[in-house]
């Protein structure tokens, strides 16, 4: 019988205090990610880490996750253990240009629990792509972090960004719930 895989997206130093792209409350999300990580590891279920490496493009240098920089490094809590996969990506969608889909297929995984950073960017695009590839997705919303955004002279607070993304994804692309709810369903 196949078990769900935990997909941990971009929990990297640039998103924490002192980094080049600090998010709002990344430490609170990290606590919840660690709870899920501990559960999956205790069960012996698959854990996949995703690490973003930003590539410079003509006229547009990388702003963060610069190759080889301290900010690109995974958070110390996120070091993969033996047998856990790590994929480097260059785009928001964790499936794009990586072997993630093939890896999950080889393990006959059809269910994903998606967590990480940023809620509105890589968590969102990965979850949408997962549906297209036939996966069933749960997102532990409190195990994600984002930041405030602006558009057309409007400021959108991080909490509102997160809630809006959750509302857009829930029911169609994923089941969006709390870490407690995910753990309850997995028990």
Notes on the protein architecture:
This protein is of the alpha/beta class. It has one domain: Rossmann fold. Helices cover 32% and strands 22% of the residues. It contains 5 helices and 8 strands; from the N terminus they run E-H-E-E-H-E-H-E-E-E-H-E-H. A 6-stranded parallel sheet has the order 3-2-1-4-5-8, with helices on both faces. Strands 6-7 form a two-stranded antiparallel sheet. A hairpin with a 2-residue loop joins strand 6 (149-151) and strand 7.
Notable features of this structure?
single chain, globular, 32% helix, 5 helices, Isochorismatase-like_hydrls, 187 residues, Rossmann fold, alpha/beta
In short:
This is Cysteine hydrolase. By secondary structure, this protein is an alpha/beta fold. It contains five helices and eight strands; from the N terminus they run E-H-E-E-H-E-H-E-E-E-H-E-H.
